[in-house]
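Hi R.,

Quick one: here's the Phosphoheptose isomerase sequence you asked about.
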Amino acid sequence: MNDFIKAEFGKTLENFQRMSADAALASQIEQAVALCVDALKAGRKILFAGNGGSAADAQHWAGELVSRFYYDRPGLPAIALTTDTSILTAIGNDYGYDYTFARQIEALGQEGDVFVAISTSGRSKNIMRALEACEAKGVRVIGFTGEHGGDMKDRCDICFRVPSNETPRVQEGHEFIGHLLCALIESEMFPR
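And here's the predicted structure, written out as tokens:
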């Protein structure tokens, strides 16, 4: 057991070292923050979605923006499309699971909004359908995927590709970048 624990720490450290050495990643983070801040200043909102652990990230990051992150300030308009069981089950029943997020984007998305799409594989069918809905509505997209980016990599305005193929490492990288986005959006919208 001790060897496994040490190995997991080692993989996580290696993954974060690769991320910190990637100059393009820092630039992408700045671009994503600017995209979100521009949308919020224009009276638009940020929508989030993912499956499983990524659904938890969607809820987590939306909560950080609506409530607060590092300090008290006015709430920011952010919605996790993963939380309303009546909507999710109605769409799943009436249209199929692949449409759970696309249908919500059709209903709630506005041109100039930002959709944060989270899929460790970059191939989740319901996320891909949501990207189609974003294209139709003029909603900008920030993607979170793993190393290869799957089908998402070419369908996002900005795509964060965490340099790993192991789901836990990808999710750890997503959580770190998501926290950076929340902190920087907060400080840009409400400087202290």
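The CA atoms of residues 120 and 167 lie 6 Å apart.

Cheers,
M.
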